[in-house]
Amino acid sequence: MFGQLSHELEINVPPSEAWELCGTLRLAKLLEEDGTLIQKFELTEGDGGIGTILKLTFPPGTPGFTDYKEKFTKLDNEKRLKEAEVIEGGYLE
């Protein structure tokens, strides 16, 4: 199976602040603390750079799938660009 899913969201903060969250593992950690979107965040491999693998588990009752693993395939701090590939679960199932 091959496909692509992307999402754009306009936020009212300076780009440097947004990238400080999105370009690191801080966003996943904050979402886990909140518990609304992500029940559990597991760092399976890596340190947040290219090759990092995360397992994200969603709260019970979340429509769709219960969890998936993603791998960071591209990380460009200059362009503020991060790409991840689902490698297990999620839309692959």
Q: What's the structural blueprint in terms of helices and strands?
A:
Layout: H1 15-22, H2 26-34, E1 40-45, E2 53-57, E3 67-76, E4 81-89
Antiparallel strand pairs: 1-2, 2-3, 3-4
Short précis:
Helix content is 18%, strand content 32%.
What brief labels describe this structure?
2 helices, 32% strand, Plant_def-hormone_signal, abscisic acid binding, signaling receptor activity, 93 residues, protein phosphatase inhibitor activity, 4-stranded antiparallel beta sheet, Alpha-D-Glucose-1,6-Bisphosphate, Chain A, domain 4, START-like_dom_sf
Category from helices, strands and their pairing: alpha+beta
The oligomeric state of the chains shown is single chain
| Total DSSP E strands | 4
Which strand-content bin applies to the residues? 25-35%
How would you spell out the order of helices and strands? HHEEEE
CATH architecture: 2-Layer Sandwich
Give the count of structural domains: 1
Q: Number of DSSP helices?
A: 2
Lateral arrangement of strands in the main beta sheet: 1-2-3-4
What is the share of helical residues? 10-25%
User: At the first level of CATH, what is the class?
Assistant: Alpha Beta
Overall pLDDT confidence: 90
Written description of the protein model:
Helix content is 18%, strand content 32%. It is built from two helices and four strands; from the N terminus they run ααββββ. It has a single domain, classed as START domain (Alpha-D-Glucose-1,6-Bisphosphate, Chain A, domain 4, 2-Layer Sandwich), CATH 3.30.530. The chain is an alpha+beta fold and 93 residues long. The N and C termini lie close together (10 Å). A four-stranded antiparallel β-sheet has the order 1-2-3-4, with helices on one face. The longest helix has 9 residues, at 26-34. Strand 3 (67-76) and strand 4 (81-89) form a beta hairpin. The mean pLDDT is 90. One of its GO terms (biological process) is abscisic acid-activated signaling pathway. GO terms for molecular function: abscisic acid binding; protein phosphatase inhibitor activity; signaling receptor activity. InterPro entries: Plant_def-hormone_signal, START-like_dom_sf. One of its GO terms (cellular component) is cytoplasm.
